[in-house]
């Protein structure tokens, strides 16, 4: 649309003088545009943003014409006799009337041309401004999302120091730290191919999965399986993610790691001597399909005064001012000179010193962790809700017993109690002991002494399964009563089978005997344990407040 | 997959993780998990981080494992027990028979 064969619309402002009327008539005759819109000069203003090429036809140069023009691509047509001196004060183009038709048309054409070009330039400029603002806004948005996604990153853990320097606005490296539920600590150091926004987007699903799985205390090997599955599905085939994932036990003595495509993490003693190089034994995440992926982890023992350095290749491939790579050996040397987290600032200064004013070619990430006991307490459970007092009971006949996982089902019901969470394992155990006792001894007539050797142990449970399948009569009833005021649960389990004497086990040393332990556990973990009806009815209580 | 089994690259560590419910329903599966420990005399780690429930049959299974392996392994460690599970192991005096981390 830069130069149409003929201008479609031209606006003419005229002052109503005879001169102007004759000029407009001539122009219309010449068909200077497919459509000529004639307007009054009184409607013209210098700050108008014209949408069409504009002619101003006037017999005299009125003062309002002399202000600076918002749109200088306008052609002023004056009578030849008028004062040309003052017409120079007009900021647009001027033509003295009359003029040869050829010249006239050429001048109008030129004006229309430069008007259209200017207008197009403006449009491009505005769209550029709009796009820049949009990109900025989107970056802000993404930064916000990243900040939130990583807000729970535990970088302030007291035994770790980190250096995370992106080469551009967004970091294609990822360093995630989070405590597990057992006082253990997880650290992930990852490096997506490339740097900038594209690789940084892979950080979102990875970090979400990392935090969620760490909360559950999932093992390193299961974590990498999940990460790989997600990234394999998500990333384009030319993008992947080198990753070092480690878990330090609460004691600080056991370090489990998986290294896929990352430079070797270094474990060094207090003297800075490298004890282990935890090299990559696997492909990066996102490369292999689930079937080919290898989640094999390795474990090393660590000492309290050991330190581990994890880093991305941006560190060892850092360029000096003289374009030399830092390299693995020089990096180890720097670490040996400044071992431990206490010297971290000096280590970083040394790296900065090496790089000088050389711009970063890649994201640079480095973390140094002390392998000391983490001192991380399992998270506390929030304030407890009120619960209703209740009683429920169930009677299970042979068919029910064959089909229902009774203990798990009852735990499922009790799971609604707010305070149960911290006690569910213990309650499960207690109820399982009493229930299994009722079933195995009362209804199925099994003898625990059979469990004395490993073969008998397995046989016992085979027999349990067989006899349960063959069971046709008898039942077990269970009553659970919750006293809200005392936070007290009472369980009563009754069976219609054989009487059972518990005394026979009491005198044995059961520490290493594979059976007979249930009773001890009941006595120690439950309260108000009571046997009646020759062992057919057992009841026990449990306070949900006890720890 | 209630039990996952994992041998370290050098064959010196065998990790057996029990997920969810650890009881007699896993008798065979658990035995299989430690049936071939290799010639490296590995250290066995029983990882209970994802063990939600257990009962006395699980304790019996652990003792049977100890009996079966005794000389074939360097030691048996029970690791990552949740506080409640740890309490149950303590009450059963398993600390005398296993290394509990």
TrEMBL record, chain B:
Residues 14-101 form the STAS domain. GO terms for molecular function: anti-sigma factor antagonist activity. InterPro entries: STAS_dom, STAS_dom_sf. Pfam families: STAS (PF01740). This is STAS domain-containing protein. The lineage of its organism: Bacteria, Pseudomonadati, Pseudomonadota, Gammaproteobacteria, Alteromonadales.
